[in-house]
Amino acid sequence: MKSGNSGAAAFQQVLALASNTFKEATRSRVFYILLAFAVCLLMFSSAMGFLAIGSIRRVILDMGLSTVSYFSAMTAIFVGIGLIYHEIERKTIYNILSKPVSRTSFLVGRYVGLMAVLLVNLAAMTVALQIVLSVFGSFTPRVFVAAGYIYLELLILTAVALFFSSVSSPVVSALCTVAFYLIGHTSSALPELLVPFLSSLWAKRLVIGLYHILPDLNLLSINNLVVHEIPTAPGFAMRALLYTVFTVGILLLAAALAFKKRDLV
Amino acid sequence: MDEALLLKGVEKTFRGHLSIGSHHVLRGVTLTVPRGLIYGFLGPNGAGKTTTLKIVTGLLFPDAGEVSILGQGLGDGSVRARIGFLPETPYFYDYLTGHELLTFMGRLLGIPSPRLVERIPVLLRAVGLLGKEKLQLRKYSKGMLQRIGLAQALLNDPDLVILDEPTSGLDPIGRREIRDLILELRAQGKTVFFSSHILADAEMICDQVAILIRGKVVQEGPLEDLLGGEIQFWDVTVRGAAGMVPPPGCSVLTRLGTQVLIRVDREEVLQDLIDRSRAEGASVRGVVPHKISLEDLFMSHVPGEGSR
Ligand SMILES: Nc1ncnc2c1ncn2[C@@H]1O[C@H](COP(=O)(O)OP(=O)(O)O)[C@@H](O)[C@H]1O
Ligand SMILES: [Mg+2]
Fold it and tell me: N or C: which end of chain A has fewer CB within 10 A?
């Protein structure tokens, strides 16, 4: 009989696992509640623009894109940390890994499946935002581009959640992933904030070095640029894409290595 | 290579987060499952049966020892294409229908769609779930889950079928059906390795058994050899002998009016008892021989129970 580990077989397995993960989400009531909540929240927060002083369009864009970012990031983190844990806890993983399915295929399949779910989620929110904008006569095509960048961030966050959940408990994973998210959104301010106050050259270098090690999710966000109608710098897209591919690759690899020898009790 | 499964000195310790919580569960499990037989892996709850099966199916990693499955090591797990596994009280995605579950599992096994379309109804019929495949698994009863679990374990037409407590939690009819299915699998030339703490089920269908107590196989072999043909004792019912004093070597179990139930554990004593009863004008109403049962064998190994 043919070995289940050839590339084509593994690809088929990843697809099967991903589509099952997608089914799992789209057949749960929570998914629709969350989706409805997201859309309502979005409409509400961006409609606040109506009350604002100044450019209504700018406020809607600002509030709307922030809501889309935060909400989809939180969904990615909190669904991501359960991606592996729930399979173990409910023992459904026994049926899968006792078949000729490699643990890496399993992780990747779960990851791809959740990314498909998050895509639907993000698309719904983006469309809702555009509807609100259109109501105020401010349909903004560039919002779709901004959503594309948000998706890059979701790719990274989900990989982080997956990595932590393949080595630790959901609570620890949640804390670590949220910490990653917070650091990712504040690290870019670190050099500006600290360097002017540091007298020694070494301390300055240390801070800048630290910044380069820490994740920087602001490298991926064009929300502010869209709000203020500033064009992106040349090469921005390429850099964001490479950053995402590299980070996700490293994280999935680390998750796979950590998961390979783990006892499934 | 005529063993379906070979375990040699398999050790497993579960460690808690602190080293104080460690639990030495398997203490050198050694057993040999010949091909084409029904092999019962028996032991009380907590003996380590599930742990052993999880090692064989690649869910846990042994600390020490050797495992050979159909002549292959645990290695990359490709041998799992040739085994079928039913976990203990199986859990499945309850949002899937029975048919969707089998399709999903079939895709994981790399079974081409046309073959799967043929195979699924055959399996559904075999496990008696034909007509229920459109129902979501959350609506399945325990017995139905066990049966769909069996169906998914057989999708790839495995050479070795591993079942963890396949009859537990089922009613007598369900247990009977599972037993018949296991016999049917043997008839198809497959090897069935199943764990159970229900000895009656094992006794009826196993060709060979291993008895696992506290992480060690204390006895292994063909069922006839282990149980032997030897009679352990006889229960004799005598009537009309209220005043009779039984010969030495007998013990009176109960008296009911003039009827006495006497247990005898040697054949000479049995003859003696029968002769004496006749001499005193009492009638022997019944002599029931008792052979050793799996349960007796089992109990003789459980710590705290004296061996006979
Ligand atoms: N993850 C675990 N951590 C610690 N102890 C465990 C774990 N899983 C099982 N055990 C212990 O190992 C022993 C054997 O369990 P198990 O293999 O399930 O036995 P059986 O299937 O024969 O009933 C039990 O005492 C159980 O408490
Ligand atoms: Mg068990």
Answer: C
Handedness of CA A236, A242, A243, A245 (dihedral sign): positive
Quote the tokens at residue B242: 């209220």
Q: Can you tell me the distance from the alpha carbon of B38 to that of B293, in angstroms, rounded to the nearest whole number?
A: 18
CA distance B86 to B107: 17
- Measured by CA distance, the residue closest to atom 13 of ligand 1 is B46
pLDDT in tens, B158-168: 999 999 999 88
Residue B274 included in any domain: yes
pLDDT digits 0-9 by tens, B138-161 = 999 988 999 999 999 999 999 999
* Residue (of B205, B217, B155) closest to B7 by Cα position: B217
Do A112 and A36 touch, CB atoms closer than 8 A?
A: no
Query: Per residue in A170-211, pLDDT tens?
Result: 999 999 999 999 999 988 888 777 777 777 888 888 888 888
Contacts for B263 with CB less than 8 Å, ≥ 6 apart = B233, B234, B235, B236, B250, B251, B253
Q: State the CATH number of the domain containing residue B177.
A: 3.40.50.300
Are A95 and B81 inside 8 Å of each other by CB? Answer: no
Those of residues 27-56 in A touching chain B at CB distance below 8 A are: 27-28
Whether ipTM tops 0.90, in short, is no
| B276 neighbors B291 (Cβ within 8 angstroms) | no
Local structure of residue B93 (DSSP, 8 states): -
* Cα B226 to Cα B294: distance, rounded to the nearest angstrom: 8
* B258 falls within a domain: yes
Question: Could you give the C-alpha distances from B211 to B48, B204, B215, B301, in angstroms and in order?
Answer: 11, 16, 10, 9
- Domain of residue B259 covers 231-291
Give residue ranges of B with CB < 8 Å to any A CB.
14, 54, 57-61, 76-83, 85, 87, 90-93, 95-96, 100, 104-105, 107-110, 149, 152, 156
> What is residue A3's predicted lDDT score, i.e. its pLDDT?
44
The domain tally of chain B equals 2
